[in-house]
Amino acid sequence: MASARGLTAVGVPPFPSWILYIRIAILVLSLVLLGVAAWAVSLFSVGGSAAYGYTGASGMMVFVTIWSLVVYGGSLGFQFGAPHLFYRIVGLILYSLAVIFWLAGWAYAASQAALVLDWVGGYGGEVHDYGSALAVCAGLGAVAWVLSIIDLVFFILACVREATAPKLSQAELGQVQPTAPVASVTTNELPHEQPVYSQQPYATQ
User: Does the keyword Transmembrane helix apply (predicted)?
Assistant: First the structure.
């Protein structure tokens, strides 16, 4: 199928120009959320859970942001630095996983933020700060999730449209030079030949 060929080809598909800004926005959100999630992990570790390898929703968001930085940052690197090494099937898998991870990350953070903030009520303290950090992760993570969906959809569309676009022939591209017509030569058009007179030997006396 043409769509399958477009998704398994090598090379950067013809993206719309504004997709670049979508990916830059995802990278910026990932950097911001990495800092917020790391701060939430430091607050969560006060209870001792992080010492046993459990960091909750904040640890999940740290993983998601790092994954997003590697995937979208590496994608831009290949797009501008080595487009001939851009394997679209690999990009499709990584972008799809990014969408799934963002969904899991912000949903988990939202549920934990609601639970923590409801438990502490109007009281402050580190527990409240932890819940607020998770709420920020949930809100900005949902925005990054929507942006990652847009990027994935237009990535697939770009690959499919390129594969199904009609190929122009060389003649349509003006690459075939017209050749001069060869006129047929008939016997009537041949130049008139001068008659050849045979030379007779001179008569001897």
Answer: yes
pLDDT, position 83: 84
Report whether 26 contacts 66 (CB < 8 A): no
Q: How far apart are the first and last CA of the chain?
A: 99
Question: Could you give the angle at the alpha carbon of 195 between the alpha carbons of 194 and 198, nearest 5°?
Answer: 135
Query: Phi and psi at residue 172, in whole multiples of 5°?
Result: -70, -25
pLDDT tens by residue, 87-131 = 889 999 999 999 999 999 999 999 988 888 887 776 667 788 888
C-beta of residue 117 within 8 angstroms of C-beta of residue 137: no
Q: What's the average model confidence in pLDDT over 26-41?
A: 94
pTM to 2 decimals? Answer: 0.72
DSSP label of 190: S
3 state SS of 164: helix
CB 98 within 8 A of CB 72: yes
Least confident of 3-17, 46-60, 79-93: 46-60
d(CA 186, CA 6): 55
What are 135-182's pLDDT values in tens digits?
999 999 999 999 999 999 999 998 888 756 554 433 333 444 444 444
Spacing of C-alpha 80 from chain mean position = 11
* Residue 85 CB partners (closer than 8 Å, separation 6+): 10, 78
Give dist(CA 41, CA 109) in Å, integer: 12
